[in-house]
């Protein structure tokens, strides 16, 4: 579905867009049991139609539903991309375990990687005073994060919900002139990061999760849409291993997650899959992020036609140079972030154009689709998010003038 640029630099974004106050209130009422699923979904078509139209007015080429089908009951929410899956997977039991309150230290051994608790991440350990200071602005999602546990064989129960996502976006696309639409879905590796009390091994759990989530991917792609696989676990988990592992051990750990994802994607046309990589969307120092050069070749083995990744923030903006030494395979595209979700500063269109041209200089103008670092919804004030998208499209127009004449 994602075709090469022929006469201009195409634009897109990573997925989550700011919800309106009305949609947030509708989500809150449903989450709090004050309304039914039927009452909520009756409102979604209008909300999705509006967000698709707004994307097109801004100038976004490849649009989505804003992830409006993923419940987000408050304006600030870093977890909707993941938490939505809990209501679509059977075999889970509610838990009162707060992933941020838990301070369990799980130490890894050479050759054996184990993820520690969120509160024991290496970046958080280094800057604990800043992370725990409510006035620092470092960690915007300091709210409790309560997740269920896996207590039985998992299954996919989200058929109705994903069909709602598909119907709403398909209808909105028919009302617009958008050439392409995508729906975001969580990866097996990211979905499997909740507490597991049933499966005996990582491999067993990951491939069971792959078979479950494959049903969601097929529902999206069978409808002619593109599925975006959200998988920060590939890069982000590096920070969640104590002590820091060797790169070789970490790549072995992530390879199992890549294999499970490719198992889930088997038979799905590559051009209908885009893969999103990020280092975690929280607003923090990120000094313990793994360098992109260490994982890029592994990422490129994922059966996707396009790859989105952070490339605008201060920790990863220099990594466009990675593509000098790691050629992009034939027929694949990159969707680098040229505006960031992690700062309120709105990037100047000239800077956006410069970033696009840097990538074009190493992979070709036809293979660069301008995007955002991560989702903007739940992370930035709506007016700032809109301004960033406007700057993205303005910068893409400038780059188009220079690259296509």
From TrEMBL:
GO terms for molecular function: 5-methyltetrahydropteroyltriglutamate-homocysteine S-methyltransferase activity; zinc ion binding. It comes from the Bacteria. SUPFAM superfamilies: UROD/MetE-like. InterPro entries: Met_Synth_C/arc, UROD/MetE-like_sf. Residues 10-68, 202-382 form the Cobalamin-independent methionine synthase MetE C-terminal/archaeal domain. One of its GO terms (biological process) is methionine biosynthetic process. Gene3D superfamilies: 3.20.20.210. Residues 1-20 are annotated as: Disordered. Residues 1-14 have a biased composition (Polar residues). This is Cobalamin-independent methionine synthase II family protein. It comes from Pseudoclavibacter endophyticus.
């Amino acid at each position: 579905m994602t075709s090469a640029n022929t006469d201009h630099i195409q634009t897109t974004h990573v997925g989550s867009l700011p919800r309106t106050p009305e949609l947030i209130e509708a989500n809150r009422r449903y989450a709090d049991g004050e309304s039914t699923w039927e009452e909520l979904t009756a409102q979604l078509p209008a909300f999705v139609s509006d967000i698709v139209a707004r994307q097109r007015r801004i100038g976004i080429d490849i649009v989505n539903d804003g992830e409006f089908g993923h419940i987000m009951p408050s304006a600030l929410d870093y977890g909707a991309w993941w938490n939505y899956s809990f209501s679509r997977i059977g075999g889970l039991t509610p838990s009162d375990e707060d992933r941020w309150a838990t301070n369990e230290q799980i130490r890894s051994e050479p050759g054996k990687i184990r993820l520690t608790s969120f509160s024991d991440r290496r970046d958080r350990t280094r800057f604990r005073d800043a992370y725990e200071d409510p006035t620092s602005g470092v960690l915007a999602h300091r709210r409790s994060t309560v997740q269920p546990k896996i207590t039985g064989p998992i299954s996919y129960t989200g058929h109705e919900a994903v069909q709602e996502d598909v119907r709403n976006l398909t209808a909105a696309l028919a009302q617009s002139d958008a050439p392409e639409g995508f729906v975001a879905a969580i990866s097996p590796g990211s979905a499997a990061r909740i507490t597991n009390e049933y499966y005996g091994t990582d491999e067993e759990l990951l491939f069971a999760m792959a078979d479950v989530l494959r049903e969601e991917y097929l529902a999206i792609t069978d409808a002619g849409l593109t599925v975006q696989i959200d998988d920060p676990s590939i890069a982000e988990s590096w920070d969640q291993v104590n002590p820091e592992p060797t790169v070789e051990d970490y790549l072995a750990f992530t390879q199992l997650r890549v294999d499970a994802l490719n198992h889930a994607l088997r038979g799905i046309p590559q051009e209908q899959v885009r893969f999103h990589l990020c280092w975690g969307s929280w607003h923090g120092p990120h000094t313990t992020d793994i360098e992109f050069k260490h994982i890029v070749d592994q990422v490129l083995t994922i059966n996707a036609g396009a790859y989105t990744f952070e490339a605008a923030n201060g920790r990863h903006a220099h990594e466009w140079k990675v593509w000098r030494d790691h050629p992009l395979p034939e027929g694949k595209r990159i969707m680098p972030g040229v505006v960031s979700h992690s700062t309120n500063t709105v990037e100047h269109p000239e800077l956006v154009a410069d970033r696009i041209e840097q990538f074009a200089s190493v992979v070709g103008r036809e293979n660069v689709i301008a995007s955002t670092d991560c989702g903007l919804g739940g992370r930035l004030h709506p007016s700032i998010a809109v301004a960033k998208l406007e700057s993205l499209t303005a910068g893409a127009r400038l780059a188009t003038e220079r690259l296509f004449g």
